[in-house]
Amino acid sequence: MLLGMIHSIESMGLVDGPGIRTVVFLQGCRLRCQYCHNPDTWAVDEKKVQLLSPQELVKKLVRFKSYYGEDGGVTFSGGEPLLQKEFLLETLKLCKQAGINTCLDTAGCGTGDYEEILRYTDLVLFDVKHYTEEGYRRVTGCGMEESLKFLDALQKSGTPYWVRHVVTPTLTDGEQHLMGLKEYIGTLKNVQKVELLPYHVLGVQKYHTLEIPYPLEGIEPMQPEKLTQWQKQMNQNLPK
């Protein structure tokens, strides 16, 4: 029986795609981003997660359907949802059959078969960790090859997507970095929107609980208003 490892389900997500959304956090991630606020989603341990079949999960999602309205739906997040590709694909198919809008929040670091997954995905929130190999490895501890494979499949699919980027002091901030990010986004196709996400420290306590060293200990959270002008610039040249 095909079962997915579900870390948690948020029933009224308002910042994970358009409208009101149910956010399904899948367990497992290979990246180790310095600013990650969900370190509890890294390890694959069936004893610590909820195991659900695609049918069981979609049955839960259908219960929330009346809240979604015209714009809302379900967002699959993580962790990295693409690591559970068979479960994700089957669940996406069932969502489409049930008339539920589907969104994928991903860094693109799965294990392939992206084209078929994207056929059943209405919107992708693509997390751009960095736009250079060196910077990407500094942020995540991994190379960016797999992310680029997904991005290639995403652009060829024609699936609309939003680019998301966490702006972190000492890692991904400063005028030079953000100008480079803007130029990089200008080379991409089908981008509907750019979201600059200010660094926060809401997940630091999880590191302490798990007894994992927090890489950015002492770095202050970024004030959102510092990104207002950059957010405007990033979006002004996108196709309307």
3D structure, described in words:
This protein is an alpha/beta fold. The chain has one domain: TIM Barrel. Helix content is 34%, strand content 20%. It contains nine helices and eight strands. It has helices at 54-63, 65-68, 85-97, 114-119, 133-140, 145-157, 175-185, 204-210, 228-236, and strands at 4-13, 21-26, 50-52, 73-77, 102-106, 123-127, 161-167, 191-198. The chain has an eight-stranded mixed β-sheet with strand order 3-1-2-4-5-6-7-8. Helix 7 (175-185) links the parallel strand 7 and strand 8 (191-198). Helix 1 crosses helix 3. The chain is globular and about 50 Å long. The protein starts with a strand and ends with a helix. The model has no long low-confidence stretch (mean pLDDT 94).
Summarize, please.
The chain has nine helices and eight strands. The chain is α/β, with parallel strands linked by helices.
List keywords for this structure.
alpha/beta, TIM Barrel, 8-stranded mixed sheet, 34% helix
What's the story with the biggest beta sheet? 8 strands, mixed
Query: What average pLDDT do the residues reach?
Result: 94
Helix content: 25-40%
Q: End-to-end span in angstroms?
A: 44 Å
Q: What topology, given as strand order, has the largest sheet?
A: 3-1-2-4-5-6-7-8
CATH class: Alpha Beta
Q: Would you tell me which CATH topology applies?
A: TIM Barrel
Count of structural domains:
1
Strand content: 15-25%
**What order do the helices and strands follow?**
EEEHHEHEHEHHEHEHH
Tell me the layout of helices and strands.
Blueprint: E1 4-13, E2 21-26, E3 50-52, H1 54-63, H2 65-68, E4 73-77, H3 85-97, E5 102-106, H4 114-119, E6 123-127, H5 133-140, H6 145-157, E7 161-167, H7 175-185, E8 191-198, H8 204-210, H9 228-236
Parallel strand pairs: 2-4, 4-5, 5-6, 6-7, 7-8
Antiparallel strand pairs: 1-2, 1-3
